[in-house]
Amino acid sequence: MDAPTPNNGPRAGEPTISTGSLPAAERVRTLVDEAWDRYRHLDEGRLADYIPALARAQPAWFGICVAGVHGALYAAGDADREFSIQSVSKPFVYALVCQALGGDELRARVGVNATGLPFNSVMAIELNEARTMNPMVNGGAIATTSLAPGDTPDEKWEFIHEGLSRFAGRRLSVDPEVYDSERATNQRNQGIARLLQGYGRMYCDPVEATDLYTRQCALNVTVRDLAVMGATLADGGVNPVTRERVIDSDRCQRVLAVLATAGLYERSGDWLFDTGLPGKSGVSGGIVTVAPGKGSIATFSPLLDAAGNSVRGCHATGFLSEQLGLNLFASAPAV
Predict the structure, then answer these.
(1) Which residues of the chain have pLDDT under 50?
(2) Of 38, 92, 187, 254, which one's alpha carbon is 20 to 30 angstroms from that of 106?
(3) What is the C-alpha to C-alpha distance for residues 147 and 125, in angstroms, rounded to an integer?
(4) Is there a contact between 87 and 281 (Cβ–Cβ < 8 Å)?
């Protein structure tokens, strides 16, 4: 379906924000197809073979979807193939907990600064006084998950599961094979959670928090889902398909600020330089990228670079950001 009207400005009662609109529907559709065809034969990178279930992915899988804030979806390739969301869950769980606790409270408990180190770095915890640093690395993400409302693990899980499903606009399900595979190999995350507990930066039992985090990473999504989830952040917290408000608009801008600085781990600076947009990657091969006020780009391809980011996804997103005019830092001289 195509967007019925352009985005001409904020809704009544919304703050004045920088917005715009995607190009015409046919132009977007043509560019999505071109991006898929341009990079579908790129075979650089390797599978996430340290997680047995992810090591069985097919290297040829590649899907793209662009979602506009009015609900238009433009897809190519393996757009309906399900895969586990992995670390792409982090910004959305952060948004949900931010909505529940407040931005300042969550910032004080988790932090917002980039580590400049890999996503599972223990050194980043030991070298930084704030310990958790930010919610996009594993330590900060597990701490964020531990802050989910609820007195029991089941209540916390229902909050996370229900919230992520509202972002996607459909009920998401856990991939039991991925969940079991990651539970059997998540000793490093358990160690990180216990280390943070020792520093007073874990807010429920560390084993329970790690299990909740592992389960949220095992939720299955498609690139269509990720595009809708990203477009929800682009549209001030309103799901562009269901029209349900998931979080408040001021929470969205906090999430996007953290994504811009830390969404692609130690490659976040390169990513922002290349795309000019906040984004988040996951080791199953998904990437979600947000163009505030306009929409979202989602990609899926399981071949990863050394930092754990999809190689085809990075290339396709950079191409689409430029061709669609999404770069937040691009401008033209005033006439």
Answers:
(1) 1-11, 118-122, 125-127, 131-132
(2) 187
(3) 18
(4) yes
